[in-house]
Specification:
Layout: E1 2-8, H1 24-27, H2 31-39, E2 42-46, H3 57-64, H4 69-72, H5 77-83, E3 92-105, E4 108-113, H6 121-135, E5 140-146, E6 149-155, H7 184-198, H8 202-209, E7 217-224, H9 232-236, E8 240-243, H10 247-255, E9 259-261, H11 274-284, E10 290-295, H12 297-304, H13 307-328, E11 335-340, E12 357-363, H14 378-383, E13 387-388, H15 394-399
Parallel strand pairs: 1-10, 1-11, 2-13, 8-9, 8-10
Antiparallel strand pairs: 2-12, 3-4, 3-6, 3-7, 5-6, 11-12
Length: 410
Amino acid sequence: MKYVILQGDGMPDHPLPELGGKTPLEAARTPNLDRIARCAVTFGMVKTIPDPLPPGSDVGNLTVLGYDPMVYYTGRSPLEAASIGVPLGEKDVTLRCNLVTLAENDGEAIMEDYSAGHITTEEAREIILDLKKGLEEEGFTFYPGVSYRHLLVWTGGNKDIHTTPPHDISGKAIGAYVPTGAGAEILNRMIEKSREILKDHPVNKKRLAEGKNPATSIWLWGQGTAPKMPPFEELYGLTGSVISAVDLVKGIGHCAKLRVIDVPGATGYLDTNYEGKVDYALDSLEEVDLTMIHIESTDETGHVGKAELKVQAVEDFDGRVVGRVLEGIKRFRDYRILVMSDHPTPIDLRTHVNEPVPFAIYSSEDESVKNDSFVYTEKSAAASDVYVSEGWRLLGMLTGKETRGSNERR
């Protein structure tokens, strides 16, 4: 038996006036997702974010891969550190370092763009290397990552400071959201100094000339310490692979000792190499039992706040990922497919929320139509009356395997 998880990050949404009161999932043309919903052996809603935890992709993707986040979650940034091969000591605290665009409004700095216009990895690396020279001091080290997502390691730091994700404050003055707590003054000094360094940076001059948002500042958030996770094979008795353009998801894969596969042209946005992700994932199933294909564009377009872009992302997911998997997986005799999201990213809020998401499990053992009224939408999934309150248990429902290691609540 082969298993595929298709994870449309942030795909669920709220009804939108600009879509005639429909969600992007309802407005989009999704024949492949709808086929899976109609023929699913199980179709319903699942809670991916336990109530005490923040509604982020870190918590949500631990859930998707069958790790109870109440047991294993230690913060977002440590997972990204694992992805880029940064070793963490017991006294190390890591923080996500976003490159962002700040705008001025009546003397206040406003979070205009949490991604600096989805700056390219090459441009961002040049900036981070210059920031290393200008900002690093004893106990602090910057590491370049992918696009706008980078890393700061703070040796002997305070993991209990309070920080805010930049995508939560789009269009807001940043003053009320800067880091607070013991040691936060150092982080805020770095943020302020980064604005001076980046003011006339050559990369920004080039981006402005091209009509793109410049990287005018860093933003530090998502702190945490190194997680201790048992290997996926130890928990479930299965080998697996992960396909993603996002360091966070790759980091979870590394921590779980899954095969993390890099796909050329995978960007994490609308221009990503969807077909390549599917082909690499299916090829990996020749050697492993399970693969997860993570698609980020459905989340990023939610943060951008443009309904038409999210509809496009959903349709790309349906046609270029789900449809291609349904066709390509036929090379294997027996298979199961789980389609779900890690959390909703509603257009009206432009950030993550702690709400249940639709899921469907489709099996080659029974591809008959179970309910021809079902479609893959929030409303249809809720009407099924199937509700899974602990999302991490879905992995066991997909595979029929109970965990073989420690995965119970503390």
